[in-house]
């Protein structure tokens, strides 16, 4: 199977579910590691306060918004043809470590 042009790729529903499963769900904000940022839902960190709470439904909406943001980052930073499984892996990695464009 040939690699697909980056503009044609999008994260599959199974990839989003995989991210949710690997992240796990937490209804109350927590700090994963001392000195880290507050996290909630399925690993969301943006605009999370230590006292925040969230429902599963709202956490899924935030997960979708977050994955869309990281999809854009992957497309911007790695603008090369990929297999869909490669693309999903890069988006999942970016979801976990943040956007890190490295120019070599």
Overview of this protein structure:
The two termini are 28 Å apart. Helix 2 (56-77) packs across helix 3. The mean pLDDT is 91. A hairpin with an 8-residue loop joins strand 1 (26-30) and strand 2 (39-41). The longest helix has 22 residues, at 56-77. This protein has helices at residues 13-23, 56-77, 84-97, and strands spanning 26-30, 39-41. The chain is built from 3 helices and 2 strands. It has 104 residues and is mostly helical. Strands 1-2 form a two-stranded antiparallel ribbon.
Main features:
elongated, mainly alpha, 104 residues, 2 strands, 3 helices, two-stranded antiparallel ribbon
Spell out the blueprint of helices and strands.
Elements: H1 13-23, E1 26-30, E2 39-41, H2 56-77, H3 84-97
Antiparallel strand pairs: 1-2
Helix pairs in contact: 2-3
